[in-house]
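FAQ: What does the model actually see?

It sees only this:
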Amino acid sequence: MIKLPTIESSLEIGIGNLSTGEVKSSSNFVYFNCTSNIDCCSNMDIPVTENEIESIMKHDYHIDQIIDKPSPIIINKNKINPIKAYILKKNPFTGTCTFLQDNLCSIHEFKPFACKIYPFSIQFETKEKYRLVLNENQICKSVIQTTKEKSNNLRHLKDSLKFLTSIQ
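And it is asked to produce this:
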């Protein structure tokens, strides 16, 4: 029997601190470089905040093109930093994100934060400290476990820190 390599969902790749600007890689080393498999645009509910909806609308999209239901969900409910969000609309025929056109993101320059950091997600421990982990619904074929030298954990940690500090 062949044993295939697997990467656990929710695998922590590092921690960050919004108040100090420090990031630290964990000992779980991964290499991620998007290869446009589009699984993330096809199989997931993608949360989008009101600010992100407004940003998309500034590019001549109507609310009906962005979300299906006007009912929000709460991300991190009963936890630190709860966020009110909506689910990005899906194409009713294909089940993919409506912004996926010819296997490319048509709103790439202003896509939602969840898309920008996928296949990672943020888990806050305090209002300032967070963990960067592989998304619990990790289906991304572009993530591989690797050595410290080949890892790009720190790049993803720095990118997430930069984005999180820009929205505070």
